Amino acid sequence: xxxxxxxxxxxxxxxxxxxxxxxxxxxxxxxxxxxxxxxxxxxxxxxxxxxxxxxxxxxxxxxxxxxxxxxxxxxxxxxxxxxxxxxxxxxxxxxxxxxxxxxxxxxxxxxxxxxxxxxxxxxxxxxxxxxxxxxxxxxxxxxxxxxxxxxxxxxxxxxxxxxxxxxxxxxxxxxxxxxxxxxxxxxxxxxxxxxxxxxxxxxxxxxxxxxxxxxxxxxxxxxxxxxxxxxxxxxxxxxxxxxxxxxxxxxxxxxxxxxxxxxxxxxxxxxxxxxxxxxxxxxxxxxxxxxxxx
Length: 294
Hints:
This protein is 39% helix and 16% strand. It is α/β, with parallel strands linked by helices. Strands 3-2-1-4-7-5-8-6 form an 8-stranded mixed β-sheet, sandwiched between helices.
């Protein structure tokens, strides 16, 4: 099984060095790294050079946009399984073997997903991941999909197509989050079965952890992208209402205990999600609202 890793990067060098070092520890040798470089200069050349003889690297250049960069990389994949690591994540040793084992145990799965953990091996602060395994469905996709830990057969990627370039980080992009959820939702609505396992973990430490002001700004921007995905795929009102009430409730509880910075964080997440959902984007058709067999 050959892996194609499509990595979009801009402005990060030390983080990319750590990711490359984590790839160098992988026992499974058959993978390629496709770097979609959004930097205006050649800063990545000396960083990538030491690894050119260690594993296959294709160094490309792309516009400054996460989704556009990934789409540039997708044009060059040659592997059987495609993944989309961030430039500030790390792959733990043996990750590829765990992916292959998951595909072997679930032959009907067209893709597998996992969670992200921090350096203490605790689930990411950025999302609430399921602690139980099972197939991904539209209602639970928010707890079972993350861009760093999506591994899809190449045939799925060919069928789904490009990432939505109106979603994801980038200058002039209004909806800064949700591109990975959108991609997974499109796979599910196309009839593909995706399996989630919390044992498949990618290391990813949130840079904003503890900085409530920075986290608030991020929560608003990313929340708007999430709300946009709700509108795009015509998610039902019960799910939208539940996802809106969570940060609203968190804000009220934080006010009650006197943690005003945290209350602002939850409030901004609520405002962002509401704005994205009310965006008026033409809704997609509703389909597949059921839980696949576990």
